């Protein structure tokens, strides 16, 4: 089949596989507070269910980035989704917290492939001028998933126990795997999807790539650290329910969409560089305000939601154009470039979640501190790694 055949439908398929891999964390997120009772464990250990998936994804990203440079990404994508499906169903029957953590590690590794291969597929589907816009849309999908999936996860939790989310992930994985078996031949092959290859070290030696990739990683990673811990804090120290977490996420999604919608228009008017810097600064400043509020003992959900608007608005403005700039800075090696960017996001989220987890019972301030420090680093790096020539 030719690559021009139904590119928008193929884009939806590729974006769907990417969305599934990212949703593997966030669809399960609302169920985390119920895991200690289910397994006779603690909320601190339950947070490792999230960190394990992020760590597995990190390993998978780097592995598939390397494999994609040597083998047909279409076959790799089918096999990875098939194994993701098996790991998802197995996790639903985990007999202990230790088994669940181990299966989450495998689930994250197998679910990493779509994020690695998607930019290369898209470059092969569209003409050069349209590919840039499509990659930007993919970045929006990848950033939007962590906001949307917890809402769906909260709804699933009301239908049954914590296992329901894993059954849904397995079912969606099965559908996408079978669809890819039937349609993968219509995706660009290795020669089309991958233009030229370097090494990870070559890409990482680029100051321009590091600037955009690290700032994107810390911007979204800091936001995810807060989202990962929010259900436990809202239902624990704040004494509220999962409904309040859903409200927080709905507001965040709406704010992100507004920012992402404005992003390309602002980039045309003011320039990509100014949009990335301004959006990142707004994100970090909002987290700093949230930290100051939490440090003074503030617990009002209304105030937290109001500040959360600006957190998500800031990332919405910088996210799509920042992701595209990072991928383009890899100079043609989209698989390895995408792998490094998403690996940076997940590594930041995993490390931040693990560091914050022991203090999760203390209230809102540990999450706000984590978000403020990490997004502050994103802002700082944009200045430190700027091209001075």
Automatic annotation (TrEMBL):
UniProt KW keywords: Cell membrane, Membrane, Transmembrane, Transmembrane helix
Regions crossing the membrane: 46-64, 76-95, 101-122, 143-160, 166-188, 209-234, 246-268, 275-294, 300-317, 338-361, 367-386
Domain Major facilitator superfamily (MFS) profile: 9-389
Keyword Transmembrane recorded: yes
Membrane topology summary: Multi-pass membrane protein
Keyword 4Fe-4S among record annotations: no
Signal peptide: none
Organism of provenance: Kaistia geumhonensis
Pfam families with a match to the protein in the record: MFS_1
Intracellular or extracellular location(s): Cell membrane
Protein name: MFS family arabinose efflux permease
Domain of life, per lineage: Bacteria
């Amino acid at each position: 089949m030719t690559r021009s055949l139904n590119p928008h439908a193929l884009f939806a398929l590729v974006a769907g596989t990417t969305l599934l891999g990212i949703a593997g964390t966030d669809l399960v997120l609302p169920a985390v507070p119920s895991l200690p009772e289910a397994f006779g464990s603690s909320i601190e250990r339950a947070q490792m269910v999230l960190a394990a998936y992020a760590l597995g994804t990190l390993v998978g990203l780097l592995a598939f980035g390397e494999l994609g440079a040597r083998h047909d990404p279409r076959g790799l994508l089918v096999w990875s989704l098939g194994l993701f499906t098996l790991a998802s169903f197995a996790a639903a029957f985990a007999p202990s917290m230790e088994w669940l953590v181990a299966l989450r590690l495998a689930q994250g590794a197998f679910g990493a492939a779509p994020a690695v291969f998607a930019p290369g597929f898209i470059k092969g589907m569209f003409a050069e001028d349209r590919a840039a816009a499509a990659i930007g849309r993919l970045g929006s999908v990848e950033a939007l998933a962590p906001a949307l999936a917890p809402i769906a996860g909260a709804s699933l939790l009301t239908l049954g126990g914590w296992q329901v989310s894993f059954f849904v992930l397995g079912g969606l994985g099965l559908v996408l795997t079978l669809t890819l078996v039937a349609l993968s031949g219509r995706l660009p092959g290795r020669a089309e999807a991958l233009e030229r290859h370097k090494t990870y070290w070559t890409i990482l030696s680029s100051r321009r790539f590091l600037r955009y990739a690290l700032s994107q990683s810390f911007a979204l990673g800091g936001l995810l650290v807060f989202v990962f811990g929010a259900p436990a804090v809202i239902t624990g120290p704040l004494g509220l329910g999962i409904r309040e977490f859903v409200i927080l996420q709905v507001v965040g999604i709406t704010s992100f969409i507004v920012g992402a919608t404005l992003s390309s228009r602002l980039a045309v008017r003011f320039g990509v560089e100014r949009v990335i810097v301004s959006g990142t600064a707004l994100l970090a400043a909002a987290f700093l305000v949230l930290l100051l509020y939490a440090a003074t003992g503030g617990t009002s959900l209304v105030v937290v939601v109001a500040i959360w608007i600006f957190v998500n608005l800031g990332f919405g403005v910088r996210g799509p154009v920042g992701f595209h700039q990072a991928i383009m800075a890899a100079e043609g090696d989209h698989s390895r470039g995408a792998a490094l960017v998403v690996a940076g996001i997940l590594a930041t989220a995993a490390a931040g979640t693990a560091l914050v987890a022991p203090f999760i019972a203390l209230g809102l301030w540990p999450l706000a501190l984590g978000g403020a420090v990490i997004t502050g680093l994103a802002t700082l790096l944009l200045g430190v790694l700027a091209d001075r020539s």
